[in-house]
Amino acid sequence: TPMRKRETSWLSNEQIFILNVVFFCLFQYTIWNFVPKNLFEQFRRIANFYFLVIFLVQLMIDTPTSPVTSGLPLFFVITVTAIKQGYEDWLRHKADNEVNGAPVFVVRSGSLVQTRSKNIRVGDIVRVAKDETFPADLALLSSDRGDGTCHITTASLDGETNLKTVKCLCQGPTVSCLCPNPIIATSIFLCIYVVFVCFYVRPLGPENLLLRGARLKNTKEIFGVAVYTGMESKMALNYKCKSQKRSAVEKSMNTFLIIYLGILLFEAILSTILKYAWQAEDKWDEPFYNQKTEQERNSSPILKFISDFLAFLVLYNFIIPISLYVTVEMQKFLGSFFIGWDLDLYHEESDQKAQVNTSDLNEELGQVEYVFTDKTGTLTENEMHFRECSINGTKYREVNGKLVPEGMTDDSPDGSTPHLELLFLKAVSLCHTVQISYDQPDCPVGGGDPFSHANGFSSNHMEYYASSPDEKALVESKVRSTRVSLFALRYKLLHVLEFDSDRRRMSVILQTPSGNSTLPYTVCFKGLRTLVVACRHFSPEEYIDVDRHLNAARTALQQREERLQEAFSYIERDLHLLGATGVEDKLQDKVQETIEALRLAGIKVWVLTGDKHETAVSVSLSCGHFHRTMNILELLQQLISAPVLIDLLMFCSFLTLSSSFFPRIKEDHVIQHGLVVDGASLSLALREHEKLFMEVCKNCSAVLCCRMAPLQKAKVVRLFKTSPEKPITLAIGDGANDVSMIQEAHVGIGIMGKEGRQAVRNSDYAIARFKFLAKLLLVHGHFYYIRIATLVQYFFYKNVCFITPQFLYQFFCLFSQQTLYDSVYLTLYNICFTSLPILVYSLFEQLVHPHVLQNKPGLYRDISKNSLLSFRTFLYWTLLGFCHAFIFFFGSYILMGEDTTLMGNGQMFGNWTFGTLVFTVMVITVTLKLALETHFWTWMNHFVTWGSIAFYFIFSLFYGGIIWPFLHTQDMYFVFVHLLSSGSAWFAIIIIVITCLFPDVVKKIFYRHLQPTGTQKSQVTWGGGGGRKDKKKAKKSKDFFSGFWTLCRSACLFNPSSRKSPVCSDWPVCILET
Fold first, then answer.
1. Residue 417 φ then ψ, to 5°
2. Partners of 748 in beta bridges
3. What's the rounded Cα separation, in Å, for the pair 653 and 661?
4. Between 569 and 647, where is the model more confident?
5. Are 792 and 848 in contact (CB under 8 A)?
6. How far apart are CA 953 and CA 947, in angstroms?
7. How far apart are CA 969 and CA 971, in angstroms?
8. Rounded Cα distance, 239 and 713, in Å
9. How far is CA 686 from CA 269, 641, 739, 770, in A?
10. Which has more confidence, 835 or 80?
11. Could you tell me where the DSSP H helices lie in 317-418?
12. Which of 505, 539, 499 shows the shortest CA–CA distance to 519?
């Protein structure tokens, strides 16, 4: 086994190498740290930590409520959340274990043994078979092909499906290489392998390196030595540390919790102060029926004040909704299944459905402002198709496998082939690195003769692989063309001058069949998917000089790149132009429509790609990212800071003038400006002129970044993510080079490419095609956001309704800390009585039909900027809760305040009956309030809404009708039965509920009539004929009350609809238009 040394400038001895274990999913827990770490994470949440403190206070001091009222809900929340997070982390462990536990074959003690991928060590010789993935970064030692090469695809790394050729290195005692580094896109990966064999130095470049994640193709098997393993592999080094993503809704929840904590402290402090103010009079400080003990008289006033403050804190603690977190967790977890069940996100050809890797970010899909997308494999299929060519000024196109001059058909006679056209076709047929794979198992590979089959090529039994998809498209077009048979000759390949981004060309040097001369055919990349073809003839003396220059440059150990460039420039000169070809890069289906829909939704799309400038611009134009009428600003090939500053200042001035002279362009959402920037210029702009660059980008409708390294993509995303506006970002890609970008963005989406799953494993969501992004954001994102936003606001509302009467009650009991509700009601209010309706609402609610959301992308703007969780909306729900609480309490007080003999037999009601009346009105009102907010009714909504009210009545009758032996006191015995036996109580319940909800109905009607939102207008246009007719009648009616009544009918009545739920299509539904 070869020994490997890692050379550094400060360390010359051998290092200890890491195991071949990767953590793509970056899980949080192990079996040992799950309990302590999960508890630590959960108690970092404000509500959980607060209830833990309250629970401990209840254990330590005498409080008005039992510790069970806080401990039981806290235990329930912690347990459910731990199960959910543990399950999701187990899925991450499972995904990584599949990769690290994959079977591989390595050479141990001279024999081939099977082991697991995680057991590979640096220096091990690994055998990889055809169509297998390389388990580590390997240097190729041997191949079964006669020429010592193998072919690989890197689709899982960069999305490119074209074939790449890797050459063997000569085996020797030592292989030395540089320390691991993340740079993949450089010409030699910045790591040079040097093999010492008989004191002969051989430089090795990227053509000898097999990257982890790539796949072996068109080769039966290879052997390679492991040089980088585990997290030191190129693919792993291009990952960034994955941070815990938190949604904007969760941040808003924490802000609201702090505000409610302030309200709680205010109520507790005020109650404590008023208690001592009231007890300043002796008759209230120590009444005759409640004499103090000697210990109480001698206790410290400060300690008494603190004890009373903590007691009030416990009494009012339910204003903080502890069950909010667990309900949100359940909503996210259960709601995430709907994405996988959506048949519109299912790709039939590849049999792939949408996948959810984390459910914590569902609502973020409805808040996206910037989309950063890869190009190759994400917007395009990376499949090239030959369309036309130009030879000697004549334009040809392919018709039925023939090259036909423009204006002619394939039925026209072929005629003779001029010399220049023949030379052009020869150049295209020979200047490439295409490899052939045979379908028959007996066909020779590598060193075999491809012409031994049936008089030449048999396209029915051959498959072509190429390092460039353009080359493959051209060769396949020439195979289809009948003109290829005109020059079925043998040529000897002498040299290949590989393509690089600086020269933008590749060349081959061939020896003609006559052997008299050598000639190169060069393909120059000049512009879009256009290839310019040229040639040059060499005499034997010229070739000897060329061969000497090439060998000297390729064996150089210092300044190798510069010497190679000089040699290539020396050879590729005095070229004779032959013609040009046009190749089309096939876009994915409906990419242009998807980008346009995102733009109409107010989402800016950035394309970040590693491709060259010309190709990237070409694809941007074809997919609709750029329009032909757009002003394209270019910031390219800048290596020093001064020109970058000048260009940015010029761009900024131009954009400012344009926006001032043409203000309507922005209002009408017409694309006007686009920016193209390459990686080198971007690095300078971000390092020295970040604010100016950001200002230019914000004024551009579309931005294209080309020649981007993987970590540069993540840096661009982070730049916008941390900008003062804090926009929500989304990154989408299909290759391992997109992982850093996907992990950095607020929401990361992986495209399920043809090979490899690195982007999918590290993403938050995975879809099969880019076109599915539109529905994922415009429909699912819209639904998830409105559902969880209403859930959060409703939880705060119903807890304000719950605890405010308790606060008001203290004014009538001398702040004695007497509870208004029974402890069982305190415990079950959020867990049982009001939990299911809001959970079901948050799973199925739809303001408008999904088709409307897709057809009208502008509706996405109605929920942007976290509008449904703004402070104004939060204040409305909070004040509404206080108003309803006052009506609950004082409505019941008016009924019972003067006369408590509400029974026919003269029996009186006590304080527990009063509290139960308030509680009953509250449960009914908050449940019906949610019913008014519901637009999309299923049988499950009806079941939990009316079932929750029925369950409360049944439970109260059962709880108060039996003497429970395990309860020390049973204050509620027969209280509920007596309450329901009073007709006055029933009348009060009905009046109070109507008084609370009627203003809400009136408000909704007036707002819909006077200030309807775009979503509300869409509800009217889609929601059935009755709604449209009623609204038209209301508009035409001269009588205000007549119009008011018709609007009431359209806004408040249940209108049966034949529409089905898109997720649960078997459920009958009806629409409540509110």
1. -100, 115
2. 731
3. 12
4. 569
5. no
6. 10
7. 6
8. 11
9. 51, 11, 21, 29
10. 835
11. 323-335, 337-341
12. 539
Query: Which 3 state secondary structure label does DSSP give 837?
Result: helix
| Amino acid occupying residue 212 | R
Could you read off the pLDDT of 868-901 as tens digits, one per residue? 888 999 999 999 999 999 999 998 888 776 665 5
CA dihedral sign, ordered 68, 72, 75, 81: negative
Instruction: Give the span between the Cα atoms of 600 and 598, in whole angstroms.
Output: 5
Q: Which residues pair with 396 in a beta bridge?
A: 389, 405
Q: Which residues are CB-contacts of 522 (< 8 A; sequence separation ≥ 6)? A: 431, 497, 505, 506, 507, 533, 534, 535, 536, 572, 575
Q: Reduce the DSSP state of residue 224 to 3 states and report it.
A: strand
| Helix or strand holding residue 996 (H, E) | helix 983-1010
Q: Using an 8 Å Cβ cutoff, are 113 and 106 in contact? A: yes
d(CA 711, CA 729): 16
Eight-class DSSP state of 133: B
List of residues 6+ apart from 737 with CB closer than 8 A: 157, 158, 159, 184, 238, 374, 610, 710, 713
**For 971-976, which contacts have Cβ atoms below 8 Å and span 24 or more sequence positions?**
971/822, 971/912, 972/822, 972/824, 972/912, 972/916, 975/910, 975/912, 975/913, 975/916, 976/916
**Nearest alpha-carbon partner for 715 in 692, 743, 695, 736:** 743
What amino acid is encoded at 759 in this protein?
A
Task: Label residue 109 exposed, middle or buried (CB < 10 Å: 0-12, 13-18, 19+).
Answer: exposed
289, with CB counted inside 10 A (0-12, 13-18, 19+), is exposed
With helix as H, strand as E and coil as C, how does 323-336 read? HHHHHHHHHHHHHC
Task: Point out the least confidently predicted range of 432-446, 552-566, 828-842, 919-933.
Answer: 432-446
Rounded Cα gap, residues 840 and 930, in angstroms: 11
Position 160 confidence tier, pLDDT thresholds 50, 70, 90: low
Q: Return d(Cα 495, Cα 110) in angstroms, integer.
A: 37
φ, ψ of residue 501 in degrees (nearest 5): -70, -20
Question: Pick the residue with more confidence: 902 or 502?
Answer: 502
Instruction: Determine how β-strand 368-373 pairs with β-strand 530-535.
Output: unpaired
Highest mean pLDDT: which range of 97-111, 273-287, 334-348, 429-443? 334-348
Binding-site residues for ATP sit at 374-376, 471, 499, 529, 609-611, 707, 713, 737-738
Show the tokens assigned to 770. 């880019």
Write out pLDDT tens, residues 894-903. Answer: 877 666 555 6
Residue numbers in the known binding site for Mg(2+) are 374, 376, 734, 738
CA dist., res. 227 & res. 911, Å (int): 80
Predicted pLDDT of residue 694 = 82
Residue 656 tokens read as 């400012």
Q: What are phi and psi of 721, to 5 degrees?
A: -65, -35
CB 996 within 8 A of CB 798: no
Q: Which of 818, 797, 796 is nearest to 807 (CA)?
A: 818
List the catalytic residues.
374
